[in-house]
Amino acid sequence: MEIPGYLIERKIGKGGMALVYLAIQESLARPVVLKVLDISRKTGSEDLIERFLAEGRIVASLTHPNIITIYDIGIAGDNFLYISMEYIQGGDLKARIGIPIETKQALDYLIKIGSGLHVAHQHGIIHRDVKPANILFRDDNTPLLTDFGIAKQINEDLNLTSTGLFLGSPNYVSPEQADGSEIDGRADIYGLGCIFYEMLTGEKPYPAETVFDVVMQHRQAPIPRLPDDLQVFQPLLDKMMAKNRKDRFEDAESMVHHIEDLRKRLPSSPTILDFDLTGPKTSAKKSNQTFMILMILLFLSASFFTALQFVEIRIKKPGVNLDDVPITTSLSGQTSAIAPPNTIETANFTGSETVVEPVSDEVISALVWLGKRSLEEYRLTDPPKDNAYYYFSRLLEINPADKTARFGFLEIADRYAILAERALADNEVEKTEAYINIGLKINPRNEALLSLKSLGEEISQKSFIDTLKNIFK
Fold first, then answer.
1. Looking at residue 402, what is its pLDDT?
2. Which of 18, 133, 139, 258 has the most CB atoms at less than 10 Å from its CB?
């Protein structure tokens, strides 16, 4: 792949819509990050491409010290869309949030990101996906808001919610966004409130085993309670995470002013470990306790990281390099556990004799969104209980005549055809066969998959004949 004016060095990541590369902008000899969307393959819709281009136009129009800088946006040839932006080496908030962050530092992050959101909202832009992974840091610890890939102009004609699909990350999604309702800047305030809770406690506000349960808690569960030593921040959290957006801050600017006033009233140097409403404690005994706790945490972190590496080595299968898979798929060595959905072949989708307990419209709407979102992110049949196959199966259990679920299964098969095409083009035989087999289990009549299977058999037969010829030369 070549982008005129840029020398691509290596791939450094993968976003929701694009591959991310480290590159050198040759005219200025400076490192940049390139987000590149390959449009040569059938990987998305016109809406996906427009969202990608919209990210560059939106962020480039914003000037703020806590919003990432966009250098360039364009189309390279007929195959690639790209966005060039500043290269940030300080990591993201997601990497820092595992251990509770010092309270005043957390408030400082809120103020700076909140100020950036205020500027975006003034320009009629809602971010829609405020989460720790979208907050980066410069080397001087300045937080930057990035990844406006699913932001939208408040006044634009295209209404994404009209499709019944809301966008965003489940762990930080506002109740109104989860409902698929029209949203405003207060949805971003809610997401920032979720981040605030996680910074203070090291835990997500609504932990659950499945994404579906997380979404339902955002819609219905009470606002989480902070520990006793952090109760001074509970009113702020309540104002940011109110279920009814009318009870939240009116806008990001008023939120920032409130946080600034709160920070001024705090003791000079409180931390999560020694915070006291009467003032910070700095005794030698307390310092020793703090040091010991930090050392234990460091030891546990190192042990946990080593264990993860060991588990990763044990679960990887020979012959298939999972790092080369272009999009998250079910290739985790568990394809045999995927049963063919008999409902596609045998159900008439006109009713069922099975008695199913009544399910609320909220649950059905959540399952529809989760299924569509999983399709967008190519979580087709994996991970367990958080993939398109799982959610559409749940819908069919509720209503065997559900058309969304029926067409959802067909879409899963289509996406496996796309993955098989990619693997075949890259001469990855095992992946190609795996994608084809899974896709045909889901829809045995998928024409693209059947054609690919025939093509694969022809190629295999030809290779076999060529081998014989070489032996008897």
1. 87
2. 18
